[in-house]
């Protein structure tokens, strides 16, 4: 049973630990052990620890302190994984925090629930701006026209789960394990193929999007 804590106090703590422009400070990293100890019984502690981990790829001057917290971070990962198997209402927040613990900082910061998700990227062959939609309204690549909407749509080609590799396979298998069908299907499309509406070349969506948008690493 999770305990209730004063929401205003947690909001204030979050402002102190996660600075303006989503930056971390040494105090942010130093707070992780205490937050992780509270995380099993406090949604607020779990979420704040997750937010800190999601920003750990940035320049915060605390690499040594973060390395010293490796055991705590591993414990946090195990806690998050157990929480996911309960199919909680904060599933996506927890999933993203676990991605950050696994040092998948890019996907930890951008992964959505695939209800209304758009990914903008450049075709690697002709450099045209392509909009990729993965959601309840459709799963396609298109050229976005601000007057006409998404035009010249091409259906995406999802990658079967057994053909996924690396982080895509790991994400997919966790979602399937936990019965998160929409998330699993979205991941299969995100790590699948898209066709450029301009030149008809085919490329892997996740590869192109990650290459263009990955955060600067420490």
Write a structural description.
- Helix 3 (32-39) packs across helix 4 (43-54).
- The two termini are 37 Å apart.
- This protein has helices at residues 7-17, 26-30, 32-39, 43-54, 63-68, 70-84, 91-101, 105-110, 166-177, 181-190, 205-213; strands at 18-19, 23-24, 116-122, 129-135, 138-145, 149-155, 193-195, 202-204.
- It is 48% helix and 18% strand.
- The chain is elongated.
- The strands form 3 sheets. A 4-stranded antiparallel sheet has the order 3-4-5-6, with helices on one face. It has a two-stranded antiparallel ribbon with strand order 1-2. The protein has a two-stranded antiparallel sheet with strand order 7-8.
- The chain has 218 residues and is α+β, with helices and mostly antiparallel strands.
- The mean pLDDT is 91.
List keywords for this structure.
alpha+beta; four-stranded antiparallel β-sheet; two-stranded antiparallel sheet; 18% strand
Overall form: elongated
Q: How many independent structural domains?
A: 2
Write the H/E string, N to C.
HEEHHHHHHHEEEEHHEEH
The main pleated sheet reads as: 4 strands, antiparallel
Poorly predicted runs of 5 or more residues: none
Q: Helix/strand-derived class?
A: alpha+beta
Total helical elements: 11
Radius of gyration: 19 Å
Helix content: 40-55%
How many beta-strand runs? 8
What's this entry about, in short?
The chain is α+β, with helices and mostly antiparallel strands. It has 11 helices and 8 strands.
